[in-house]
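Budget justification aside, the reviewers requested a transparent look at the raw inputs and outputs of the sequence design task funded under Objective 1. We therefore reproduce one unedited record. The lines immediately below are the structure tokens for a 290-residue chain.
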């Protein structure tokens, strides 16, 4: 165990006994024991190993990503029994589903099918998803869309660590944060056209991150709420700093800590884009409209 590096995750699946909150970070691990074990804290002060435990690292090696399919590409075989997640590497909505798939350790279960949105193939609309958007998920002879629905679907219909808590108060707050996202996104985007950024936009995120004290994430432990917000904050942060000289973490210690913790989660970091690439993309997209 000494060979493990700091900055990863550890998932225990253990019942009984119940484990206390675990504050440190280690690599993503799965423990197969005599008792099924389930605990989604980030790390632990020491390794709690019951008898006859085998240790298997999962999600710790970088996945070889397939090239994006464009108008010249042949379509994959549709409805062949293999779940397929159609994404774009640059789309924050698709990134949500990619993160959820990775975190649950489904790299071998759900095949990534990246689409080139600037030169998308006709067969995607005609044969896969008539809405012609990403993400979409092919599963059980159906194709479903909408990122917020899909992260819930992936969490509920596939194996792996749960991304939605059982605690009723946390579930209620999660629904509030899902509902809040659109107004948060619109407020940030509208600020791109203003001289200054409304502090209240990110103050609301700071307040939300202060609600639960059992961890640095929106619901204390990592959840679908973090997945819903992370791809967008990843893009807002470099753009606002460069264009508006506005640091979203100034005076917001919870948000700064959340960003730091998110950057320790490999399921997320392997989906991140180069900040310079994101910056140039947002400049091209939004500054031309100002």
């Amino acid at each position: 165990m000494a060979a493990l590096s700091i900055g990863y995750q550890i998932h225990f699946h253990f019942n009984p006994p119940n484990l206390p909150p675990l504050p440190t970070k280690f690599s993503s691990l799965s423990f197969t024991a005599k008792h099924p074990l389930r605990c989604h804290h980030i790390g632990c002060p020491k390794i709690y190993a019951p008898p006859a435990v085998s240790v298997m690292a999962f999600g710790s090696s970088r996945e070889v990503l397939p090239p994006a399919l464009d108008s010249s590409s042949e379509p994959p075989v549709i409805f062949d029994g293999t779940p397929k997640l159609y994404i774009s590497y640059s789309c924050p909505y698709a990134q949500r589903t990619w993160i959820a798939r990775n975190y649950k350790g489904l790299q071998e279960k759900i095949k990534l099918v990246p689409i080139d949105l600037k030169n998308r193939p006709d067969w995607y609309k005609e044969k896969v998803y008539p809405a012609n958007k990403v993400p979409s998920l092919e599963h059980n002879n159906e194709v479903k869309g909408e990122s917020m629905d899909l992260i819930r679907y992936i969490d509920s219909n596939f194996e792996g660590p749960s991304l939605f808590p059982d605690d009723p108060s946390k579930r209620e707050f999660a629904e509030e944060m899902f509902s809040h996202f659109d107004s948060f996104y619109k407020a940030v985007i509208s600020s791109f056209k203003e001289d200054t950024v409304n502090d209240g936009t990110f103050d609301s995120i700071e307040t939300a991150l202060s609600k639960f004290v059992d961890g640095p994430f929106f619901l204390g432990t990592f959840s679908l709420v973090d997945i819903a917000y992370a791809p967008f904050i990843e893009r807002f942060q470099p753009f606002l700093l460069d264009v508006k000289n506005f640091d979203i973490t100034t005076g917001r210690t919870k948000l700064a800590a959340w960003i730091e913790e998110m950057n320790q989660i490999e399921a997320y970091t392997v989906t991140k884009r180069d900040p310079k690439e994101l910056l140039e993309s947002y400049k091209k997209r939004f500054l031309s409209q100002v």
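The chain is about 40% helix and 10% strand. Residues 1-60 have pLDDT under 50 and may be disordered. Computational costs for records of this kind are itemized in the attached budget.
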